């Protein structure tokens, strides 16, 4: 029986280099159903009830972005001050949600609204508005380009003079 050296070389390369048996680890399967049941059980212990009539939810982040839940399930336990929002969030800029989101904006987002109004009057494009919204959020948080002005520079000062 003739042996083809090329096929033999391929077979030798494809075989494992280790001698002896090694345990093959099974891949850990992440089951979200189990996590969901644990969450449902925890909410059940708190006596949470489903809140009807919530069509969407928006969570405002400090950087000017919004977590937008289009279809959301809300369960609440007011006695323990616990509410659970379930669904698939989308991270969006405030400018993408401007018409619907105006009644939901509070005093903390007033600076962002003012800057957006100025930029719309200046005739900037929606792309420019998105970058300005994130810049406005950092300014509203008290930061500027140089850093936080409330922190003093304590360079070359000695605090412990032991003499």
From TrEMBL:
GO cellular component terms attached to this protein's record: nascent polypeptide-associated complex
UniProt-annotated location(s): Cytoplasm
InterPro entries reported in the protein's UniProt record: BTF3, NAC_A/B_dom_sf, Nas_poly-pep-assoc_cplx_dom
Location (main, coarse): cytoplasm
Chain segments carrying region Disordered: 124-163
Keywords from the named record: Nucleus, Protein transport, Repressor, Transcription, Transcription regulation, Transport
Domain called NAC-A/B: residue spans: 33-98
Pfam families: NAC
SMART domains given in the database record: NAC
Bias-annotated ranges (Low complexity): 129-145
GO BP terms in the entry: cotranslational protein targeting to membrane; protein transport
Record note on quaternary structure: Part of the nascent polypeptide-associated complex (NAC), consisting of EGD2 and EGD1. NAC associates with ribosomes via EGD1.
Protein family membership: Belongs to the NAC-beta family.
Record-linked PANTHER family: TRANSCRIPTION FACTOR BTF3 FAMILY MEMBER (PTHR10351)
Function: Component of the nascent polypeptide-associated complex (NAC), a dynamic component of the ribosomal exit tunnel, protecting the emerging polypeptides from interaction with other cytoplasmic proteins to ensure appropriate nascent protein targeting. The NAC complex also promotes mitochondrial protein import by enhancing productive ribosome interactions with the outer mitochondrial membrane and blocks the inappropriate interaction of ribosomes translating non-secretory nascent polypeptides with translocation sites in the membrane of the endoplasmic reticulum.
The protein's name in its UniProt record: Nascent polypeptide-associated complex subunit beta
Taxonomic source organism: Candida oxycetoniae
Classification of source organism: Eukaryota, Fungi, Dikarya, Ascomycota, Saccharomycotina
């Amino acid at each position: 029986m003739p042996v083809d050296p090329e096929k033999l070389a391929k077979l030798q390369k494809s075989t494992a280099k280790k001698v002896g048996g090694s345990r093959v680890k099974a891949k850990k399967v992440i089951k979200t159903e189990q996590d969901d049941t644990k969450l449902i059980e925890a909410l059940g212990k708190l006596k949470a009830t489903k809140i009807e009539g919530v069509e969407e939810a928006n969570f405002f982040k400090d950087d000017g972005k919004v977590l937008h839940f289009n279809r959301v399930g809300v369960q609440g336990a007011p006695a323990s001050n616990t509410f659970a929002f379930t669904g698939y969030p989308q991270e969006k800029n405030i400018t993408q949600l401007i018409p619907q989101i105006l009644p939901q904006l509070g005093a903390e987002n007033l600076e962002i609204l003012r800057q957006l109004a100025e930029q719309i009057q200046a005739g900037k494009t929606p792309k420019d508005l998105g970058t300005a919204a994130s810049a406005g959020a950092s300014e509203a948080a008290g930061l500027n380009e140089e850093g936080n002005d409330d922190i003093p520079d304590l360079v070359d000062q000695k605090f412990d003079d032991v003499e």
